[in-house]
């Protein structure tokens, strides 16, 4: 009897680009991929927290560099990525939320959310894939989506719309890029405690509503996302594309 071999979760000799890595989920994903052996490029608009994260990773013996990047500036993204090495892995964790009742949504707020969550995510995924295809390399492209890509929520019409759209282009890109061995997937978290979600976590009424929806009875931590990022980036998920990993504590189960 020949026993099967467990696929490797290691990412040695892989280059990974993590956008939105200055804080929260993006920071967690950067740490996870670095610990798995990837050389990580930390990207965001704010340079100072990127420098701090880079230094901490290097102190631990990991390979890290930084890249000031605004994913809404699609022309600049194309220019910058052309000057970068080819990325085997993309984790796009850049995101924005402007939670308001639908009838109070302004065009400015709508555009700002869509620019980051949809347009920015679409074009950076496209650019990383384009370079992989040109160099005939496989890859794993991961967008941080949301459980709100599967359900609606009070005050979240625009945010939910943007994440539903991310799921749509993920499936289409997975079909297009499959012949090139490039996989495209999403991670869909529930409410994760970060600096950007403190307003919700500090509101007892809102957080009680959130916990009532989560079947496991607790909200999420950044650490809850890190394992999924490594899995999707690694050969352990080599047959996984065009789909999502829902990390929602059972919210969307009904």
Please write out the topology.
Layout (H helix, E strand, L loop, with lengths): L14 E5 L4 H12 L3 E6 L2 H13 L4 E5 L5 H9 L6 E4 L14 H28 L4 E6 L12 H21 L4 E8 L8 H4 L2 H10 L9 H11 L10 E4 L7
Parallel strand pairs: 1-2, 1-4, 2-3, 4-5, 5-6, 6-7
Shape: globular
The domain tally reads 1
Tell me the CATH topology.
Answer: Rossmann fold
Report the C-alpha radius of gyration, rounded: 18 Å
Examine the secondary-structure arrangement and name the CATH architecture.
3-Layer(aba) Sandwich
Strand-residue proportion: 5-15%
Helices and strands, in order, run as EHEHEHEHEHEHHHE
Individual helix count: 8
Total count of strands: 7
Going by CATH, what is the homologous superfamily? NAD(P)-binding Rossmann-like Domain
Low-confidence parts: none
CATH C-level name? Alpha Beta
Class from helix and strand fractions: alpha/beta
Biggest sheet, strands in spatial order? 3-2-1-4-5-6-7
């Amino acid at each position: 009897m020949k026993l099967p071999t467990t696929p490797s979760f290691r990412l040695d000799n892989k280059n990974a680009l993590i956008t939105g890595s200055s804080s929260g989920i993006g920071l967690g994903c950067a740490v996870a991929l670095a610990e798995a052996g990837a050389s990580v490029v930390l990207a965001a608009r704010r340079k100072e927290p990127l420098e701090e994260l880079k230094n901490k990773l290097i102190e631990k013996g990991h390979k890290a560099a930084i890249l000031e990047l605004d994913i809404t500036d699609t022309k600049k993204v194309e220019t910058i990525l052309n000057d970068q090495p080819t990325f085997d892995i993309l984790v796009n964790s850049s995101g924005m939320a402007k939670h308001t009742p639908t009838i109070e949504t302004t065009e400015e707020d709508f555009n700002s959310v869509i620019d980051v969550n949809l347009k920015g995510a679409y074009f950076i995924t496209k650019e990383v894939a384009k370079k992989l295809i040109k160099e005939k390399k496989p890859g794993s492209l991961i967008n941080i989506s949301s459980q709100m890509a599967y359900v609606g929520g009070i005050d979240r019409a625009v945010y939910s719309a943007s994440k539903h759209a991310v799921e749509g282009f993920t499936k289409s890109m997975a079909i297009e890029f499959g012949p090139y061995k490039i996989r495209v997937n999403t991670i869909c978290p529930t409410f994760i405690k970060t600096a950007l979600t403190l307003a919700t976590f500090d509101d007892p009424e809102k957080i009680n509503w959130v916990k009532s929806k989560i079947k496991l009875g607790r909200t999420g931590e950044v650490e809850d996302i890190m394992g999924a990022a490594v899995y999707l980036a690694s050969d352990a998920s080599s047959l996984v594309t065009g789909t999502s990993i829902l990390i929602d504590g059972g919210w969307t189960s009904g």
